């Protein structure tokens, strides 16, 4: 089979790899869609990328089942998305579905082991989540990571019904958060420096949009909330300025969650925040049980997850795909097989 690898400094290559064979407890997925994730760009731009097949947003069909995988759970032909981490399965974190927090070491597909930018992918059966027929394979790819990351962060923030939620950054994760939170009954204020992404945010349900390049964020959000500020804030851009604006826009008793991987840092002025009773938290993707709930929610509410994708590519178009995605001006990209 063909698989995509990064060579360093925005270069990549398609190589030939043996078709995988499932061992005990494993399955082989025929990849039907593999999303391009914002975190892929850190590897793509790096001088020292991983040496494995990249990509970690797979969705597809079970192609082969290894020994010990019960036919009552998984059969050849089942439609699935994948929780893209593996752990020891026996520690307290793994047993609660948080393989990425495994106390004995986590395997990240597309970074530590062969990922999804290939025709087939080998994964433990315990990482699979069933994909309903009503959801497309590209939607399944998004739900497994980018959209799932938004779901996990929103769940951390708590009850959003009737809230004023400011979502900083309207890339794929931020747009997913806007879409899900709107369906949950929040009034979403979308923040981004690209007007094209703010237009997409409106499509996904944002009640108001703010461009920091043309208007002061804190002042505008407070004007939109009768001077109170946002009761909930989700920061997905990873920028230092975004983080600062997010905290300054927060209402008294507000809750802020940070998921952005921009690589920056920011200072928290405890003296200023202390009298606001603010709660500040982080969120790292989501657990397997939450991924299952996210998929179910998307199906039941008929969320337009596929609309996140502005670009569809074949794997042999990977050079153009990542060069386009590197600009980070549009929505999400996906390889279809």
From TrEMBL:
Catalysed transformations (reactions): 2-deoxy-scyllo-inosamine + NADP(+) = 3-amino-2,3-dideoxy-scyllo-inosose + NADPH + H(+); 2-deoxy-scyllo-inosamine + NAD(+) = 3-amino-2,3-dideoxy-scyllo-inosose + NADH + H(+)
Full protein name: 2-deoxy-scyllo-inosamine dehydrogenase
Role: Catalyzes the oxidation of 2-deoxy-scyllo-inosamine (DOIA) with NAD(+) or NADP(+), forming 3-amino-2,3-dideoxy-scyllo-inosose (amino-DOI).
Residue ranges of domain Enoyl reductase (ER) in the record: 8-335
Cofactor annotation: Zn(2+)
Organism whose genome encodes this protein: Streptomyces luomodiensis
Leader peptide range in chain numbering: none
Record-linked Pfam families: ADH_N, ADH_zinc_N
EC number(s) on file: 1.1.1.329
Keywords per UniProt: Metal-binding, Oxidoreductase, Zinc
